[in-house]
Amino acid sequence: MKNTVALALALAASLAAAQGPSGKKDGKSLEGRYVITSVEKNGEKAPDRKVKDVTVLITKDAIISTDKEKKHLYGANYTLDTGKTPWRIMMVGTTPKKGDKAAGIVALEGDTLKLCYALPGGAVPTKFVAGENQRCIVMRRVKD
Predict the structure, then answer these.
(1) What is the pLDDT of residue 104?
(2) The CATH number of 2-141 is which of 2.40.128.280, 3.60.9.10, 3.30.470.20, 3.20.20.140?
(3) What pLDDT does 26 receive?
(4) How far is CA 1 from CA 12, 14, 114, in A?
């Protein structure tokens, strides 16, 4: 019985995370400005100094990251599949490498956004932990 209750709670939490803060099941809930709080690549956490002051702007179809001097670091267009939990994301780089593709998963829990994706040669992640040739980024929404 305990296992059934735990499974039901985990499924409810996953569904709530996929629906975003408004409970709506669409990608609009991802839109906003975020600061990166942690990055993991190939199972190892990146040093805090590498991610400090990096901001990420997510629009209805693009992801753009900048450093503390507002220097452009990365850009991609993206599409979401919100019919699955966690949501699936497909990103296509615009800068620095135009056309690079990365498939992954994304979940929004309150003001925390988790994004995990495959690096070249890696498998698409199925959980929010970076395995070999995968990267996971945790971000916190910035209130304007």
Answers:
(1) 98
(2) 2.40.128.280
(3) 67
(4) 17, 20, 31
